[in-house]
Amino acid sequence: MLKQLEGSRAVAEAVALCRPEVICAYPISPQTHIVEALGELVAQGAVGRCEFINVESEFAAMSVAIGASSAGARAYTATASQGLLFMAEALFNASGLGLPIVMTVANRAIGAPINIWNDHTDSMSQRDCGWIQLFAETNQEALDLHIQAFRLAEELSLPVMVCMDGFILTHAYERVDMPTQQQVDAYLPPFEPRQILDPKEPVSIGAMVGPEAFTEVRYFAHAKQMQALELIPGWADEFRRAFGRESGGLLHTYRIEDADTVVVALGSVLGTIKDTVDEMRARGARIGVLGITCFRPWPRDAVQQALARAKRVIVLEKSLAVGIGGIVSTNVRTTCDVPIYTVIAGLGGRPITRASLAKVFGAASLDHTTFLDLDRPLVEKVLKREKELRRSGPRAEQILKEKHGVPAR
Amino acid sequence: MAFQPVKYYQTGTFTVGNRLLPPETRSVQANMRRTNSLNSGHRACQGCGEALGARYAIDAAMEATQRQLVAANATGCLEVFSTPYPETSWQIPWIHSLFGNTAAVATGIAAALKAKGKNDVRVIAQGGDGGTTDIGFGCLSGMFERNDDVLYICYDNEAYMNTGVQRSSATPPAARTATTSVGNKFGQGKNVPAIAIAHGIPYVATATIAHLRDLEAKVRRAMEFRGARYIHIYVSCPLGWGHASDQSVRIARLAKETGIFPVFEVEHGEVVSVAKIRKQLPVEEYLKPQKRFAHLFSPKVNSEAISRIQEMADRNIRKFGLLDA
Question: Does residue B294 belong to any structural domain of this protein?
Fold first, then answer.
């Protein structure tokens, strides 16, 4: 059914259609509208037998989900930014215990300085925590990925993070096609784990494992996650047949068939990139786009195939690994030998414009790492002054003062 | 046949042997059908108070729930000594997740059981003092505040024993630990049973491993309530406290008889019972057998510290009316 909905509302309704049994909620911008909507849906009885728990922290949210999932309930939560970091310990625990929890991450920057706007630093910081990470390009895909995520999680006994750009998607009203309960029920079978906490069959879960078996346990986690690479394309096909639209899969390509330059990116910025590419193509550039939907596990073969013809790859990423540069780029470098350039863009919600993109994509030569629209004179001025002072001190305030012309003390 | 006099071994004590009681009032541990929830073969130290407390508490809870019990366990001694891979001592469904999230994990289990309509299955969360009064305190308070249907049991041995006896917020003043080498400072303390009461939860109790019938009765009583419940059990630690491993129960008895550890029971915010001190003993009797307090007595007696500890004990006695006039 076609609806005009806010992204958060669309995701909440999709999650409700997946019949979660325990939802734990702790508010953090820009995730709030998702859990608010779910709280309302549960209270209205639209989710069936479901416990909605207002917890006291994100650490508790993930821990409640761990308890619920290990007792056999389909568990869901949502978070963003600092909240994702606050639950970091529990994220590793959930994946280590093989619990198929599904969580939305409404992608947002990490402080300090505190910043509530969108980038991918939060989920990128947790890329190695053993969760599958799927990135949505549109609200429709965000909605659809949640339905696929529960199935994927429960099939592989692994938790899944569905990442959607904070504000850009979560707060955008768009047309979405909301599936029916019958459609979702047909696609997503009930949650039937092999082992749960049950007095009828007492088991001990979470025992200590020493050096004699730890490597094998970790290898197993890796092997299970890699299985997702085989399952996801087939399930995306099945999803297309059942729901009548393309959603999910490992990656999406756009006009790469004859492209010399391929731009790699994740999430909602792909829309702007495609528009830019169309404009550049109209002027004769041979440029295409590779959108990564499944970032963990890393779809190495599929990326390799997609980049096989490329002479130059530009990775546009909304996160920064301080001290090295690009995170997605580091992953892309495992797949091809052509020159790969990193463009760091959109940090802390800075708009990524077609004009800026066209400039960087069309540049004759690129640095190893480019910061899109960086105010270079400003940072160089502050860097120079800091070098003279040779003392530790606040950084963000220095830059703000300089930017707004407040004299330095 | 020569006349054989009947010997009442426990004459002169206040303990009544199980054999003198009718079967229905005997302890859970005296029952042949006890569940041995924490089975033998685990790797706790000799004289471990936590193992003793957990065995009594969980078996009592098992009996009270007709064996419909699930437990969540914090990281710590109890977790480590009971589940060295691939073995387990637990005869009940049991999960260890993290150090600081046990109350929340238990909340999740309780929520799942409710969503599944399994209302007969009950949930226990358990941890040491570190996992309860320090790192797990946020989750504990959240669980209390929401009044989730969980019985949380804290086995308090007054320091981080699993990592090698470091100070926790439950470490008493003057006690020597690996991180308080000159003795713990006199702070304001962190009275978690009182904090639990302040949450207004239906049931809060303290108990010791020297008063095991009392402990069993409190666990049984706790299981009669729905909502958040808290039992704080004083468990001696021969290794961490530096006393002989056959003295664990005696030390716990001394903690109660000196007023150091008040044993009481609170329902809906009202004190409903206190374990009276039979014969008040000076705190020195409690402090002296433990090496963690040895610096209070040698090379010279620190009478100021001892009298401050005595004042604390006296305050407990007055506050809870532990002595009959």
Answer: yes
